Amino acid sequence: MQQRIEEIKSYIEHQDNSLAVRRMLDLCLDTGEETLLVRAIDWSREFHAFQKNFPNDPVPDDFRKKAYDLLGALDTQNGNSRQTPQLLVDARKVSKKYSGSNFSLHPISLKVRTSDVLGIVGENGNGKTTLLRCLAGQLALDEGELEFPQLNNPDPYDIKHHVAFIPQRIPRWHGLLRDNLHFSASLSGITGRQNELMVDFMLERLNLNDYAHLTWNRISSGYRTRFEIARVLLQKPSLLILDEPLANLDINAQQTILTDLRHMAKSVYHPMGILLSSQQLHEVEKIADTVLLIKQGQCLVRTGKDEEIARGFVLELETPVSREEILQALNEYPVQVHFNGGFYTLMSENVPVEDLLKALLVANIQLSYFRDITHSTKRYF
Amino acid sequence: MSFFKRPFVPAFLNRLDDYLLKHKPEIWSARTHLVAYFCLAFMAVLAVLSFLVPDDPRSESEISIWVVFVSLIAVIALVFWIIFLLRFNVFKRYGFTNPLNRLYTFLLYFLSIGFIVFICYIPPIVVSFRANLAFTDTELASDINEMNSLICELAYDSLPHKWISDTVIVVNSTQGRYDGTTVVGEVEESSVPVDTAIASGEVTHTIPTISFYTPEHRLIDTAEYRIKKLSTDSLVALNDSVFIFSECPGYEFVTDPGLAEHSSIPLLQSRELFEKYIRHPQHTDKDKLITAYNRLKAKYYYLHRSIYNNYNYEYAIDETYRNSIQFKYKTSEISDSINNIYDRMHLFSSNDLEWQIRVWFYISLVLSILMFNFRHSTVKTFFLSLLVAVLLTVFTSLVLAFTSGDEDSFFGSYIFYTCMFAIIALVSMKNKTRNVISGISINIFSWLLYFFPLLLTSMYYEHDRDRFNESNLPYESYNYEAMQTALYYSEIVGLILFLIAIPTLFHVLYRRWYSLPEE
Predict the structure, then answer these.
(1) Torsion sign, CA atoms A337, A376, A105, A279
(2) Is B28 in Cβ contact with A189 (below 8 Å)?
């Protein structure tokens, strides 16, 4: 608790107000205190209203004062402790073959626990969506087993209530967006005052309040994704599966959504497991505990703390110079240089990436972009 | 915020809507509260409009045009409601739900559709109400009697005073002929006891002179004799086989066939008019009679619009007394007016009311069941179920046509289909994947379950009637009332069975089937 309070204070001090508001809302929700949550929502509303009217002005002192008052109140709370991660889904050698198609998903095993974020990456048409739909109970498995240890002798309806799936093409919503959120909350048993509070919380948390009175046709595809996430989160699933959630989001929204998802997965109030597929390797790798690379229906690589340690070093860079100049700058090192038309990939068995970069800088090689992809699935593309 | 989203809805209903959204999502998503409000509001407007529309109860009712017009509005309302209904579905979102919620939602659909269908009944109800305000059955009967009496008195000289007689020979079969002395051929003489024949006939008047007995006498069989006996004004038995049926000339110039059933005053029959005004004529002041008749004529006379009026068509007047009376006293137009008034007054009485309720109930029920299916199955499965049902009906009809099948075969086929779809639906509980055939079976089983007791009862009574027909007992002696009662109870049992099956059987079947993974 204390650590999180200090973190928020730091954000406020450094004018990272948007981040401070989101963390404050999360913290107040985790305390389970309705009065604190209401204060946090009001404070968030004030901030968003101010930001909308005066986008370039620093926030007034009153805003900071209210934040500190709220943090002071939070300081007196004991705070709920984080629970031990529970196994949500245990998929053992699940495989799927479509009739009339050459594609098949080869046996894949994975486990997702509460607070876990598991990213699935891979090129188009390699089986990411098939795997996610199998795990969500939407597609029948040809072989393998799917177990949901948190559910006692579940029927398929229970499983689908337990697992929420957000497809890449989100089905159209009807009616007012706010009504949809209230409806989603109430069908999961969040009723009355709690329903209003949670919808208000979710609208503030995802900064959607200005759009809640609109209809589906009047919001952009990025906001549609965010509203869909808000709707699904209000249904309080144990396991959230998202297929390409970043596809319609701008770069800032991608970062925000991914970090929000990570924080929501690790929430004390309602911890859950998250599985998501994406083409945005680096963004996913930043927040995922485990990343699976799927190629031609097979799990090629699995990153994460329990998985295999990467062999060799790989550097990805972009430069206007030729391959010969790069090789000349690195002539002391045993390096392989590949060019895919946009990026150079430098691979070495024993030379660390830092050393390769130093050598390039010493040789005055102009670098417009570089990234260490030693531990990234990008190296397998 | 939601208080402002429906400007035509009162604040309390917006509050209720908001409450239901946040507390009872299944009730909220059915939108019955809004359907009820808008339907009641529309019904009120429609009722006022129907009251204000100039409408003479004596004229031929144009209510069918109104009903068609309002039905179109009801269809639009239904479509509009369905669009809103399909927006939110707790079941398809895998929300918290319990078996009784399935029953509540079905009842809400029924209620919503019932409200919408009931809109079509408003114009006829108002028309009937207006007619009942303007006239009463007793008033109509009294006026009819008065008009017929007045005509009998006014047109005494023009009316026939003799009864028409018909002498018949009753035989068991009419294949033979009478040659003047005996009945020959295949004819067997019947023996109808004279006392019985006279005692059971309504003999009130006999023609004093019966002096003919010729070969032209008609031969009638015992069945025709019995029917004739029921309607004759007089019956004289000459012996065991020869009878004289006599009919009083018609003096009922203004009449209404249905009024006798509802009026507390009986309508005077020709026989009674004969006794009162023809046999014993009263000498009253003619001017007074004319004035009295003109008063009643003014009350009921209405120039009915007819296609013939546009062409200045005039009825061909022949020389019969009825036509001349009709022409002179406008009895045909007056009768038409009274018939129209009567029809309007009794749009919703006794048997008619039962049928009106049945029409409302079955339209609402069938649409509710379809809506219930649609809300619990996929779009593809729902429409395939409709297709299968249509194809199955066509197939059954063809098979029955080619095999000369009777009602028995028809009922048997549908009992078989019900059992077949029930078995497939139940077996689907063991399925690992969601397949279309199981979905179609569950849907069709739910459509047939309500009718299942009705099919069984119909089939039983079909057999029963066949046995009865083989026994050669008189047609009237069959207990049709018991059959009607049994069919009526079958409808009730079917409804109860279906309502019980919703939370117990269909909830389980749809829950499992819909949430199974796809192939």
Answers:
(1) negative
(2) no
Q: Does A254 touch chain B (CB under 8 A)?
A: no
**Which residues make Cβ contacts (< 8 Å) with residue B215, sequence separation at least 6?**
B178, B179, B180
Which residue matches tokens 């209003």? A196
- Least reliable range by pLDDT among A363-377, B83-97, B293-307: B293-307
Q: How far apart are CA A183 and CA A188, in angstroms?
A: 9
| Interval A200-256: pLDDT, tens | 999 999 999 999 999 999 999 889 999 999 999 999 999 999 999 988 788 888 888
Of A315-319, B195-199, B311-315, highest mean pLDDT: A315-319
- Among A134, A141, A192, the residue with its CB nearest the CB of B23 is A192
Beta-bridge mates of residue A158: none
CATH classification code of A87-304: 3.40.50.300
Residue B269: C-alpha distances to residues A219, B162, B199, B233, B499 (Å): 79, 16, 21, 10, 52
Over residues B56-111, the pLDDT tens digits come to 999 888 889 999 999 999 999 999 999 988 889 999 999 988 899 999 999 999 99
Q: Average pLDDT, stretch B478-504?
A: 94
Contacting residues of B for A237, CB less than 8 Å apart:
none
Q: Scanning every residue of chain A, which has its alpha carbon at the shortest distance from the alpha carbon of B95? A: A187
Q: Does residue B180 carry a pLDDT above 60? A: no
Among candidates B88, B433, B515 on the partner chain, residue whose Cβ is nearest the Cβ of A157:
B515
User: Is the CB of A178 inside 8 Å of chain B's CB atoms?
Assistant: yes
Longest dimension (CA), chain B: 100
CB-based contact (8 Å) between A197 and chain B? no
Distance (Å) from the alpha carbon of A133 to chain B's nearest alpha carbon? 9
Q: How confident is the model at residue A281 (pLDDT cuts 50, 70, 90)?
A: confident
Q: How many whole angstroms separate alpha carbon B219 and alpha carbon B389? A: 53
Domain residue ranges in chain A = 2-74, 87-304, 313-380
Q: How far apart are CA B185 and CA A159, in angstroms?
A: 87
Q: What number is the average pLDDT over the span A149-162?
A: 90
CB contact under 8 A, B96 and A195: no
pLDDT per residue as tens digits for the range A171-199: 999 989 999 999 999 999 999 999 999 99
Chain B residues contacting A, CB < 8 Å? 1-2, 5, 21-25, 28-29, 86-88, 90, 93-96, 432-433, 511-512, 514-519
Instruction: Verify whether the Cβ–Cβ distance B22 to A235 is below 8 Å.
Output: no
Q: Cβ separation of B22 and A137 shorter than 8 Å?
A: no
Distance, in Å, from the CA atom of A38 to the CA atom of A55, rounded to the nearest integer, reads: 24
ipTM associated with this complex: 0.84
Dihedrals φ, ψ of A105, to 5°? -90, 120
Task: Answer whether A80 touches B (CB < 8 Å).
Answer: no
CB contact, 8 Å: A101 with chain B? no
**Which amino acid would we find at residue A380?**
Y
- As a whole-number percent, the residues of chain B with pLDDT over 90 amount to 54
**Residue B25 to residue A178, Cβ atoms within 8 A:** no
Round to whole Å and give the CA distance between B145 and B442. Answer: 61
Give the CATH fold of the A313-380 domain.
Alpha-Beta Plaits (3.30.70)
Q: Which two tokens stand for residue B290?
A: 């004319």
Q: Which two tokens stand for residue A90?
A: 């245990």
Contact B96 A189 (CB under 8 A): yes
Question: Cβ of A157 and B512 within 8 Å?
Answer: yes
B5 contacts in chain A (CB < 8 Å): 176
* Residue linked to tokens 């209230």: A182
Within this chain, domains A87-304 and A313-380 share the same CATH topology:
no
Q: How many residues are recorded in chain A? A: 381
Nearest chain A residue to B511, by CA: A157
Give the closest-approach CA distance of B25 to chain A in angstroms: 6
Average pLDDT in the B280-305 region?
A: 85
